Amino acid sequence: MPKHTFQLNGETVTVDVEDDVRILWVLRDVLGVTGPKYGCGINVCKACTSHINGKAFNPCSVPVSAIGEDDEITTIEGLADTAPGDGLHPMQDAWLEHDVAQCGYCQPGQIMAAVALVNKVRAEGRAITEDDLDSIRNVCRCGTYSRIREAVRTGAAAMGG
Amino acid sequence: MGKSPARASARPLSRRSFVGYVMGGTSLVVAADLVAGAAPAHAVPIPSLPQVPELYDLNDFLTHCALPTSNLIAIHVDEEGHAHFALPRMEVGQGITTSIGMLIADELDLPLDRVHVTLAPARPELLFNQLTGGSNTMISMYTPVRVAAAVARKALLDAAAVQLGALVTTLRVKGGVISDLLGNTLTYGEAAATAASPTTKRVRVRLKAAADHSLVGTPQRRVDALDAVTGRKQYAMDLDVPDALPTMVCRAPDLNGTARSVRNQADVASMPGVTHVAIIPTGVAVRARTFGQCIDAVRALDVEWSPGTVVGKSSADILGELRKAQLPLVVPKLGASTVEAEFVFHFRSGSALEPNCAVADVRDGTATIWGGLKSPIDTQSKVAKALGLPQGKVTVHVVQGGGSFGRKLFSDAAIEAAHASKTFGAPVKLMWHRADEPRQGRVHPMTTSRIRASILAGSVISFEQRHTAVTTDFTHGLGERLTAEVAALPTGLANLTFSESIFTLTQELPYNFGVVTQLLNETDHDVRRFNTSSVRNVYSPEVRCANELMVDQLAKRFKQDPVAFRRAHLRSGIVKRVLERAAELGEWGRTMPPGTAQGIAIHKEYKGATAVLVEIDCRPETVNRKVRDAVTGPRVTKALVVVDCGLVVNPLGVQAQMMGGFMDGMAQALTYSNHLVDGHFLEASWDNSAYTRQWNVPFEFRCEVIDSDRKEPGGAGEAGVAASMAAVACAYARATGTLPKEFPINFHAPLHFEPKPFVPSVPESPVNGLDHTF
């Protein structure tokens, strides 16, 4: 079986798995990293949203062979380490402040998408708009959407420093 | 826990005085009767004129069902001073582990973070009393949990009095530390070490007065929030059960089709990662190293299928069946004095975001199941039956669920996992593919609601509603219990079918409209034809949506303002209060631009009431806005929910439930449905099933939980759905000047998606994910 090496949450990992296995299953079924959730497998529900080299992506739709050994994957488990200090990432703190989660299943993906969205908007030199919030495709079947909108704004302010 | 001790009547000595038990054993375990505080069923008279739920509703029924089968619930206080409670209910996001923890912490004077609420495994001795549904958890658990905690507090104080050499009445507790008048202190942990009793003792305790509560009634964040935002919260598929490999099922193209034979079994079995392939009752199961390899194997399978249960049928055929089954209206048409309409509500998926899933390990004549299960005793019984095992050989562990909305009342994935594990001779971690959820999963049944109201001499003299639905499956463990209990129901309720009982016990039109009749009929009584379930709020969203649209029509006929008309006709004080508060907070009647409007609706259920006021924008520039692979349409720009749900344990939790209920109700009115075409449902993904997404969400959402006159909690989990759906429909009608009669309103719009193939049954995972990073 081919070996694949990449960076995961700050560590180098190597897995023995077929080339076409999507990264979601490499994370969950091979490495036991279960923060990214399955909700559709076709890049629609966004429950598995994680980061690759700091940008949001959906590991259900990327074969492990598509990434190289220098590519850095960050899952919800590694998000806090990407922010300064010992605590949580400011977006996670915002999520706690607004008590966003209900069942919690979609929330790792929501938080990872929110961080990427804020970074993107900041790179464009502007503030988060209603249209930006409307563009978040992550499904929340508990319907926590309004609290997500508030938390993204709070998290954005905290990330803006 | 063993059998309950013989006990006298659990009837309270006063409103706050109850009997509980210190259980015999080596550590401090205390117990209370699970039905402490419930009034006996036979004490409730049912006069003929008011509607049934006003006096005896589904929650009374759920609570009373438990009376003959009551058993004990136990709290354990460990030697670190932490309290542990295995809740015989299921946490699916509704926040009950938090609010139950608050009750225990308050009664024990213990910080919330030292109370640990876990989920009890299936306890068959509890019979009906381990079902999570009907928004009944806080109603049924409120008193028993407090009694158990009060017994624990008493046992700890008794032990501390001996250790400190002080009178127990002089002891005080704060934050789990007991102190005497001299300032000597003892922690709960130290007291627990000597508080255990060698024999079971029956004790009397007095519950704290509401005024002495410091947590109950205050907003508390969820106890599992940190785990949720760090990815540590575990669901069934995150459990590390040895050798339980990913397993998925290849399903028939037809709804409920079954597999006859597999033509390429050996080829698929030799695919990378695949360990097993076999036919099970619901399709062909494959087990592999990763779910990705399961998906590949499912797609490669060449299966000969038997036809399904609705071959060739489409939504229009089912509508025809419903119309044929409609019960007649009794009051004759009176020309201009009659207001009449028929409303159609389409199938919609009841799936949560976490797909159906369960872990099963079947071996050596035993089975162990792990899953998010709201009727675990029913799961135990059905798995035992499926495997041909005695029920006692099946262990069911309840895991927190990723949402439910009524879906997890059923054990479909657990039964499939048990079949697969037995057939394979290996443990399995079975999960449904998303495509199978709307296509083969449980749906809210398609329904029509016909209403005729008659007006005479300036008054509404009759209001008849004939609700007709595809049969709702209620076979999740209420079955036998219900047969017995229905016969014991108060006069006039006996001999109803199960569905009719639920309908009768939940539906109430809280207006003075003269003669009111609301009747349910079902098209057939075959629950195997469609896979239905009592999706969140069961009948109420459709019933109330139809009602409130007609109320607006009546108001229009009387040339009255919708709020003024409702206020004049409401016969319930709590409904009037929430209506008036919503109208005030939401600035009812403010001037709105053409194409936009407000809508308002009320609902009374779960021992409480809700009023929802929305503003909707139906202008073309809004309706026609484009979002990729999405349904946009009219946008609710503002939503306000005012709720009276009795005594509130955690207002933050109630507000969360109202927001979720609103998002459901809005989707059901505007966008969310399943299309039945030629024997199968077309929807196969979240982009096909247009449940609420961020581009549909109101820019402003507010929920006010009002101070209730009631001293007991009501239900919150489902209470927000009905009035939300109705308010959105009413606003749409007012903004467009048309009465919508089919829901969701976009049902007949051209499909916004290209239906995915039915063979193979699941779509391939894309490989271009890196083209869509941001």
UniProtKB/TrEMBL annotation, chain A:
It is an enzyme of class 1 (oxidoreductase). Its EC number is 1.3.99.16. The keyword Oxidoreductase applies. Residues 2-79 form the 2Fe-2S ferredoxin-type domain. Gene3D superfamilies: 3.10.20.30, [2Fe-2S]-binding domain (1.10.150.120). Keywords: Oxidoreductase. CDD domains: fer2. PANTHER family: OXIDOREDUCTASE WITH IRON-SULFUR SUBUNIT, OXIDOREDUCTASE, IRON-SULPHUR BINDING SUBUNIT-RELATED-RELATED. This is (2Fe-2S)-binding protein.
From TrEMBL, chain B:
It comes from the Bacteria. InterPro entries: Ald_Oxase/Xan_DH_a/b, Ald_Oxase/Xan_DH_a/b_sf, AldOxase/xan_DH_MoCoBD1, AldOxase/xan_DH_MoCoBD2, AldOxase/xan_DH_Mopterin-bd_sf, N-heterocyclic_Hydroxylase, OxRdtase_Mopterin-bd_su_IorB, TAT_signal. Residues 230-309 form the Aldehyde oxidase/xanthine dehydrogenase a/b hammerhead domain. Pfam families: MoCoBD_1, MoCoBD_2. PANTHER family: ALDEHYDE DEHYDROGENASE, BLL3820 PROTEIN. This is Isoquinoline 1-oxidoreductase. It comes from Nocardioides aromaticivorans.
